[in-house]
Amino acid sequence: MRLDYDVAAGDFTRAGNASSAIKKTLKQIGVSPAVVKRVVVAVYEAEVNIVAHSYGGHITAEISPEGISVVLADTGPGIPDVQKAMQKGFSTASKEVREMGFGAGMGLPNIKENADDLKIETEVGKGTVLTIYIKF
Amino acid sequence: MTVREIADKLNLKVFSGASGLDREVTGGYVSDLLSDVMGFAKDGSVWVTLQTHKNVMAIATLKELAAVIIVKGFEPEEDAKEVSEEEGIPILGSGEQTFELAGQIYNLLNR
Fold it and tell me: What is the mean pLDDT of residues A47-63?
């Protein structure tokens, strides 16, 4: 099963819509609540990152009997130093985004914590592709 | 203990989501950092925060929290209340500051 969602840059009123739709689908097909919780955390954080940092992106979720693979691809500034971005507390979010309570430097660590596998492909000036895999 | 019992005992204002007042509360979480709540709050918790925007409800929904309690007399934004109504997750309000309110909730839940 394949699910597709567009994510608009800067539109925080819709941030979480794709995560919510993926969550509903996983619950409907009977994936265990513990796994659904991990998917929700990882995908929500990655979705918010597209809203907060990119010029727009796309989420594709592939669901198989063994697990879910979510590809979150954006066009945007890319991540100059992935190692630094993975550190807890490091953030490049704007003041406005931080005032909303985002940009605490916990997003990527949350994703890593909840994913069985996380791949980050990024090019400065072009964009970033996150691939999150979680086993059922 | 239900959300309603906490609201009654602590004199909290119900802004929205009254259909969820009978949700069972199993714990609490206090944070104004959304990713902190996303990563670490447990389902069934009441979330005490000073954030008032719609993303709070996105997180409360995704994490299946019992209710959101906004402190210091702040009021939720309209679109946050709409999500609260749709999802049946109440937004409550208190004039107290976070420290005092969290202490009172802690006492209620651990009685």
Answer: 97
